[in-house]
Design a protein that fits this description.
- The protein has two domains: 53 residues, no CATH class; 205 residues, Rossmann fold.
- It has 281 residues and is an alpha/beta fold.
- Helix 1 packs across helix 2.
- It is built from ten helices and eight strands.
- The protein binds S-adenosylmethionine.
């Protein structure tokens, strides 16, 4: 059988060329956020242009730790949402390429009936997601942009899986720092204002606490060719949650959010990444 991701092993088809994936127009000569992140997590779904950016990022002291801390934070948040808050529907916006311990793996290990909709604006995520999730009827993957929330919440595939009148959780992990300043607040507000009572919003992003390494991260990502990856001070992160109720322990360094036995307590960069979970009462 043909591997549905075979197209990724080549550069984008030229104009007029017909391939099963021609409509996705994956350009491997330019870095993509999803593939750079995959490279930073030691994945294999990335290309030379992505690895150049990942190498710039790795030169910032301590920065290579942050993507792993983020994945661990997502795992703890999903476990908390399903096991403690009773959530059974999750929308993961800016979900990225499949990795170890995906959101549906974590959630369905606790409550198999949990439904998960993955959303990303990079079509490569859909291609990989469909291949991997084909056998899981409680999970879907759609291509949509966080900056156009109607395209997410009005998507028929998502609505077939997620009952938007019932409580659900929205994850926005490592996404808003890729949305330009000003637009990031609109994205958060667009989701916040939509979510049903009893629903949760979980957000995590790079933080600028005045540490020069934060600026180093921004330079490595924004100025070396990726074009996004802004670090922002605490008040801007806090505004994402608006009038929602932040759950304990509030908006804090991700490693301090319900740490478990595997959460590093001595990370030199834990102040560079903030996460929080809030509820619409
Ligand atoms: C750094 S990855 C994070 C992946 C995953 N959320 C995690 O934290 O492990 C950011 C993802 O967000 C996606 N993304 C960036 N901007 C987006 C937007 N405006 N709408 C939807 N997805 C977006 C990228 O394509 C990428 O897959």
């Amino acid at each position: 059988m043909t591997d549905p991701t075979d197209f990724m092993k080549h550069t984008a088809p030229s104009e007029g060329e017909s391939t099963p994936w021609a409509e996705t127009r994956i350009d491997t000569s330019r870095p993509s956020i999803a593939r750079v992140y995959d490279a930073l997590l030691d994945g294999k779904d990335n290309f030379a242009a992505d690895r150049v950016i990942a190498d710039h990022y790795r030169q910032v002291p301590g920065a290579p730790r942050v993507p792993w801390d983020n994945r661990a934070w997502i795992g703890r948040v999903v476990r908390w949402l399903v096991a403690e808050a009773g959530i059974r529907q999750i929308i993961d916006i800016g979900s990225g390429l499949p990795t170890a311990s995906n959101v549906h793996d974590v959630a369905q290990a606790i409550a198999p009936e949990t439904r998960v909709a993955y959303v990303d604006n990079d079509p490569i995520v859909l291609a990989h997601g469909r291949a991997i999730l084909a056998s899981n009827d409680r999970t879907t993957v759609i291509t949509a942009d966080a900056q156009e929330p109607e395209g997410i919440f009005g998507n028929p595939e998502l609505r077939a899986l997620i009952d938007l009148d019932q409580p659900y959780a929205v994850l926005l992990a490592a996404v808003l720092h890729h949305v330009p300043t000003g637009e990031d607040q609109k994205v958060a507000a667009g989701i916040r204002e939509r979510i049903a009572p009893g629903s949760y919003l979980a957000i995590a992003n790079f933080h600028d606490p005045g540490d020069p390494r934060a600026q180093g991260i921004e330079t490595a990502l924004v100025e070396k060719g990726l074009g996004s990856g802004w670090v922002r001070p605490y008040p801007q992160h806090r505004m994402y949650f608006g009038d929602l109720d932040l759950v304990h322990p509030g908006l804090c360094p991700a490693n301090e959010w319900h740490p478990d036995d595997e959460t590093p307590t001595d990370s030199p960069v834990h102040h560079l990444y903030l996460g929080g979970v809030a509820k619409r009462p």
